[in-house]
Amino acid sequence: MSEITRPELTEQEQIRREKLARLQDAGQNPYEIVHYDQTHHAKEIIDDFEALDQKTVSIAGRMVSRRVMGKASFAHMLDGSGQIQLYVSRDGIGEEAYAAFKQYDIGDIIGARGFVFKTKTGEVSVHVTELTLLSKSLKPLPEKFHGLTNQDLKYRQRYVDMIIDPDVKDVFVKRSKIIAAIREFLDGRGYLEVDTPILQTLEIGASARPFKTHHNTLDIDMYLRIETELYLKRLIVGGMERVYEAGRIFRNEGMDTRHNPEFTSVETYQAYADYKEIMCLVEELYDFVAKKVTGSTKVMYQNQEIDLTAPWPRLTMAEAVKKFTGIDTAAWKTDEEARGVLTEKNVHFENGATKGDCLVALFEEFVEEKLVQPHFIYDYPVEVSPLAKRKKDDPMFTERFEFFCCGGELGNAFSELNDPIDQRERFEKQVIARRAQGFTEAEIDEDFVNALEYGMPPTGGLGFGLDRLVMLLTDSASIRDVLLFPTMKPLG
């Protein structure tokens, strides 16, 4: 049997373990404490000082600084709400307890009971009368002024980064508020939140590579979901007229500042609505969430003011390409002519690319990055929209839109395809194309087609990345900055 190698301890880590051993030998093992009566938090005491002045409080948190001055000391405690100063003296807690306090280390979790007062410099503090070591920190915190300077380490040790840099924790507090605001908005409009399967038996759905696993009991391969769409639309068939899900999605693809293999999406479906109604829903949702979380529809993102105030500009994809490139794609008569234009512009395209494929390629190459303020781009080619309803007056396009901001896509929506015959034909083309690309196990979701054959009402659907919305509202340049524990390659 191979031995397990333990990390080598630094001198400071060894000293802290020796302190712990002495406490344990004296019958004072801090890890055995299971409860502390915490009556207040730091921010509450500071904000309500007038009411709490000279009142007794019990607080608990991490000691992040200490200044020993003989018979008295000042320290700062960090709890879930912020920092507060402690005044600890030999006279206040007793000689033995004060001697023990001087052996505490920065990073230790402590409980403090005492009365609230202000120092001569006007800082709200707690005059400690009783002190308890609740948990021993065996590793020293990084020096506060520099914090974690290695970005990779900041992501790997988010728990340390949050202790050192309060702005980091604020991002995730705001993320939680954004999720709550989305739920409040949708719940208030009659949407029902549901849960659909994460483990699925088919490699089907969005154009993305799934993570594959194996279920031992059933002895079948399964896939982590790459979208929630098809199950949510089954619920529309079943009579739930407004549903949504906020949940984890998994895509086995590249990683960059806007992509992580594991991310959170929000999808909504509304019976008897079309994509233009969903455009209005998006504007109202972003207006509501921005005001709720930031107090305004104007937010700063990477040194530029972004105005989320409705209405947002609306352009068809063809109009957007013509506006930014001068190319009139509507004038193309053949696929060959379209491919010729892309060749002239040095834009990559796949073999057999159609006019629709070429339109999308031009948009992605020349237009998307220029959409800094929020825009709706609508009427997408049918080739790239296998689940969207065709436009009645132009069946080469679909009633689909995406919305863009800060040079990137934030979400996707359409009038849902509810024609089971058309849906089967599109699925067949999609599966053939995916198998040609190497996705040999791609199949048609026969159960979804079966559901459509029972009849699905006209429906408007929306999907958007929660993480990208959080990036926008927290002025975060990378998706890793808004994920508590982003996907990382193991060390070593």
* Helix content class: 25-40%
CATH topology grouping of the largest domain? BirA Bifunctional Protein, domain 2
Task: Return the domain count.
Answer: 2
- Overall radius of gyration: 29 Å
> For the record, what is the CATH homologous superfamily label of the largest domain?
Bira Bifunctional Protein, Domain 2
Low-pLDDT segments: none
Given helix and strand content, the structural type is alpha+beta
SS strand fraction: 25-35%
Euclidean distance between termini CA atoms: 21 Å
Average of the residue pLDDT scores:
94
Largest sheet: 9 strands, mixed
Number of strands: 19
Just give the CATH class of the largest domain: Alpha Beta
Tally of contiguous helical segments = 16
CATH architecture of the largest domain: 2-Layer Sandwich
Shape: elongated
Notes on the protein architecture:
This protein has 492 residues and is α+β, with helices and mostly antiparallel strands. The chain has two domains: 11-135, Nucleic acid-binding proteins (OB fold (Dihydrolipoamide Acetyltransferase, E2P)); 166-313 and 373-482, Bira Bifunctional Protein, Domain 2 (BirA Bifunctional Protein, domain 2, 2-Layer Sandwich), CATH 3.30.930.10. It is 34% helix and 27% strand. The protein has 16 helices and 19 strands. It has helices at residues 11-25, 42-47, 49-52, 90-93, 95-101, 151-156, 158-164, 166-187, 229-237, 275-294, 317-325, 335-344, 355-367, 420-436, 446-453, 466-474, and strands at residues 56-69, 72-79, 82-89, 109-118, 124-135, 192-193, 199-200, 212-215, 220-224, 242-250, 262-271, 298-301, 304-307, 314-316, 375-381, 390-391, 394-405, 408-415, 459-465. Strands 6, 10, 11, 14, 15, 16, 17, 18 and 19 form a nine-stranded mixed sheet that branches. It has a five-stranded mixed barrel with strand order 1-2-3-5-4. It has a three-stranded antiparallel sheet with strand order 7-9-8, with no helix packed on it. β16 (390-391) and β17 form a beta hairpin. The longest helix has 22 residues, at 166-187. It is elongated. The chain starts with 10 loop residues before the first helix and ends in an 18-residue tail after the last helix. The model has no long low-confidence stretch (mean pLDDT 94).
